[in-house]
Write a structure and sequence with these properties.
By secondary structure, the protein is mainly alpha-helical. It has one domain. It is built from five helices and no strands. Helix 2 (13-28) runs antiparallel to helix 3, helix 3 packs across helix 4 (73-98) and helix 4 (73-98) runs antiparallel to helix 5. The two termini are 20 Å apart.
Length: 128
């Protein structure tokens, strides 16, 4: 059931655009806008959030751009993985220079791991 729900919303280009904008907005929040108690007080939870955000970024854009076999799924997945890493890294610089948040190389690693996991899932599905 979860897979079918994700498939229904992920083939929509507007979902991919909205997700990209949501990532930008979340990463632009000031430190004071990020809760640090309760569930949000779990150490390193932000790394899991980064991995999920960028994994879904790859997933949504892959399904939005490869509808009806228009593009090579393997090549598109690889390019989207690279784009996610560049986007995540760029956002760390943006946070450092334009917000009160710090540049965090571990966030970049989490972004990369999430994007890579999505790419691996996409590759596995494309081979079937």
């Amino acid at each position: 059931m979860t897979g079918s729900f994700l498939q229904k919303i992920s083939g929509n280009r507007w979902m991919a655009i909205a997700w990209t904008v949501l990532i930008f907005l979340l990463m632009m929040l000031p430190k004071s806008g990020i809760p640090n108690r309760g569930l949000f007080g779990i150490p390193h939870l932000d790394k899991l959030v980064h991995a999920v955000m960028f994994g879904l970024f790859v997933w949504f854009w892959f399904h939005a751009t490869t509808l009806n076999g228009q593009k090579s799924p393997r090549k598109t997945g690889w390019l989207l993985f690279l784009l996610a890493v560049v986007y995540g890294t760029g956002m760390e610089f943006v946070q450092h220079y334009f917000t009160d948040r710090d540049f965090d190389k571990w966030d970049i690693l989490a972004d990369t791991v999430g994007a890579f996991a999505a790419w691996v899932l996409i590759r596995g599905r494309a081979k079937k």
